[in-house]
Design goal:
Elements: E1 3-5, E2 12-14, E3 18-19, H1 27-39, E4 44-46, H2 54-61, E5 68-73, H3 80-94, E6 99-104, H4 113-125, E7 129-135, H5 139-147, E8 154-160, H6 172-178, E9 182-186, H7 200-211, H8 217-226, E10 231-233, H9 240-247, H10 256-263
Parallel strand pairs: 3-4, 4-5, 5-6, 6-7, 7-8, 8-9, 9-10
Antiparallel strand pairs: 1-2
Helix pairs in contact: 1-2, 1-9, 3-4, 7-8
This protein binds NADP nicotinamide-adenine-dinucleotide phosphate.
Residues 19-21, 46, 105, 135-136, 158, 186-192, 195, 218, 234-239, 242, 245-246 line the site of NADP nicotinamide-adenine-dinucleotide phosphate.
Length: 267
């Protein structure tokens, strides 16, 4: 098990957590999958009011303790009252009194960030959320959002990152590392594209590298993501089988040559 710092909070979160976008196909199995993931020590789960998966997450965390719950407010609710109302809805669906990490899902230029952040700070003051995060924000958008906060710091930016999608390496990753803002890597398996015929060459490369560690291609792909300083990953695993496999992605290391071979792959 590996943990990483959450921003400058002093709090540790697991290097792997569970994404829940597109949950709902088989809620019973999905609840079991999350519970298994938590039992194995990966006590971080990510959802959003937009995903329709908060109730499933709520069911999975019902009898568990110490789960770090991250959810998101949709950009259409970024006005002051909208944020407060959206948070109340998420608290209800999740069945919790407090959300650990409340994230702005995407930037919304049509509502002043100062208004949105005023509401986010009210939620912290009222004890409804613990930490404020953003998602899909650029360096500049993070700076504007941080400047709008009076007495809180942005602890994380949730952005797409995988072997297939590496844009954040062109600046955002360094910016977040320097400013101690955690990166929560979404779609770390390329939304399943890793398993498509188009990327069979990459899959074979990962499989070959994994063989030497007794690991699978999926486990190598996730290990590569979280081997980056300051980055945790939230794969979506809809079954206990996938949760078991994804749980084996940490606790071991790719060597320098293996990292270079993967880095050399261009999507
Ligand atoms: N903030 C944002 O804007 C944003 C955007 C996209 C995603 N996200 C978050 O990031 C999470 C993950 O991203 P994602 O759902 O886009 O894609 P992903 O995690 O890259 O890929 C999910 C796909 O990989 C499959 N998978 C997982 N483990 C597997 C395994 N061991 N073997 C074979 N297949 C496996 C899943 O299949 P099964 O479903 O069958 O397990 C699913 O088809 C989301 O659920 C969401 O929480 C956030």
């Amino acid at each position: 098990m590996e943990f990483k710092d959450l921003g400058k909070t002093g709090e540790k979160i697991p290097a792997i957590g569970w994404g829940t976008w597109k949950y709902g196909a088989d809620p019973g199995e999905e609840v079991n999958a999350l519970k298994l993931g938590f039992e194995r020590g990966f006590r971080l789960v990510d959802t959003a009011e937009m995903y329709n998966s908060e109730a499933i997450v709520g069911e999975a965390i019902k009898d568990a303790e110490g789960i770090f719950v991250a959810t998101k407010v949709s950009p259409s609710h970024f006005d002051y009252d909208g944020v407060i109302k959206a948070c109340d809805g998420s608290l209800k669906r999740l069945g919790v009194r407090q959300i650990d990490l409340y994230q702005l899902h995407w930037p919304n230029k049509s509502i002043p960030i100062s208004e949105t952040m005023r509401a986010m700070e009210k939620l912290v003051d009222d004890g409804k959320i613990r930490y404020i995060g953003v998602s899909n924000f650029s360096e500049r958008e993070i700076e504007e959002a941080q400047a709008a906060l009076k007495h809180n710091e942005i602890v994380s930016d949730q952005v797409e990152y995988s072997i297939l999608v590496r844009q954040i390496e062109n600046g955002l990753m360094d910016y977040c590392r320097k400013n101690r803002i955690s990166i929560i890597a979404y779609s770390p398996l390329g939304q399943g594209k890793l398993y498509s015929r188009k990327y069979s060459g990459l899959y074979e490369l990962l499989e070959g590298i994994g063989r030497g560690h007794g690991k699978s291609a999926t486990q190598v792909a996730l290990n590569w993501v979280v081997s980056k300083e300051n980055v945790v990953a939230i794969p979506k695993a809809g079954s206990t089988t996938h949760v078991l496999e994804d749980s084996g992605s940490v606790g071991w290391k790719l060597d320098k040559k293996e990292m270079e071979r993967i880095n050399g792959f261009l999507a």
